[in-house]
Structures are given as C-alpha cells and as structure tokens.
Write a structure and sequence with these properties.
Layout (H helix, E strand, L loop, with lengths): L2 E13 L5 E8 L3 E7 L1 H4 L3 E8 L7 H9 L5 E8 L10 E2 L9 E7 L4 E3 L1 H5 L37 E3 L3 E13 L4 E5 L9 E6 L8
Antiparallel strand pairs: 1-2, 1-12, 2-11, 3-4, 3-6, 4-5, 7-10, 7-12, 8-9, 10-11
Length: 212
Amino acid sequence: MTGLIGKKIGSTRVYDENGAAIGVTVVEAGPNYVLQCKTVEKDGYSAVQLGFDEQKEQRLTRPAAGHARKHGGVFVKRIKEFRDFGKEVNTGDQINVDLFAAGDYIDAIGITKGKGFQGVMRRFGFGGGPGSHGAKGFSRRPGAIGAGSTPGTVDKGTKLPGHMGQRRRTTQNLKVIQVRAEDNLLLIQGSIPGANGDYVVIRESKKRGNKR
C-alpha cells in the first residue's frame, strides 16, 4: 500500500479552472526517508519502513537512534511501516509528495482533537431531561442507565460522560487537488483528523485506488 507520513499544516481554499472555491487541507508530506525494506524471505512479509521529520540524535531514545544508525543514519521523529509498498525503493532513498498526483484519491489517518471530559449532550448529542413539570437538576443528565431489577447492572458500552476525542480515525476517499513538490505540500479536498501540527498518514485509497 503506497503512502507517506506527513504533518497537518492547516486549511485554506483554492480555485479550480471554473472559478469554484474548493476547501482543502494542507499537508506537509516530505521528504520521507526509506529506513528499511523488509522481504518475505528474510522477515516473513513485504514492507517498507518510512521516516519523517528529522530530529537530533541526542533527542531520540537509544533503541530508535540505534535503529537509525543501522539503516542509513537518518534520525527522524516518526516512523511508519507500509506493507506491500507499491513502488520499488531501496534503503536510503527519499520519497516526496510527487508519489501522488492531482486527481488521486487517498485515505488520511490521524488522531482526532482532544475535547477533555464531556457530558453526554456534547459527547453523544443527547437531548437532556425535561425543563418543566417538576423536573429539577435534570437538564443535562443521561437518564436511567440500569437494566431494571434483573440483573440491575449497567450494560457494557452504555453511553456515559467521559473523555472525548484523541481517537485514531481514518477519513476515506479524499481527493488530491494540488501537489506542490517544491514545497513538499499536498492540498487535499475536505477535512483530515487532527489539529494543526499533528502527524498524519496519507495512503492510497483502499476503496477507490488510483489508475496510473
């Protein structure tokens, strides 16, 4: 599966040839460094390990620094493995955003924004309790959550207040509007999980693919 590691920069709009405005998310997705190429004969499966966002060696853990020295000596903050990579590469190669082209469809994987501890109205869209007829202190509560007298326990998965956000999510079938190779930028139509500055994975769309 062809893909890149990137960093979400922000959102803007661009205009197509007809003058229509298109909302896009800007992702810095290069250069990616090929740290390791795994093979079926040696490792039991085929994969390419990519690294992104260079870092000083002293700021890495010893295992991460040792792995980088063993495979090309490029010290990076983020490492991601792509199985059955769709392009022939070798250890030490650089892969840039021109791996994709305008019109391609991709899947974007990221960690959603954290919202902290939230109640059921914000977290799940509950309507809340009644505001009249003697109801007091019940305006934002979930209501009864037990299973009656038997067994009298709360079912697993019941929607309750709790931590919201910071979940791994994949947005599928997003269209690449522009590829700006000189700036290592991808302009992708629509929204991508995560806050500005968060790392994301951009991979070839599993459902639509790219015919090139």
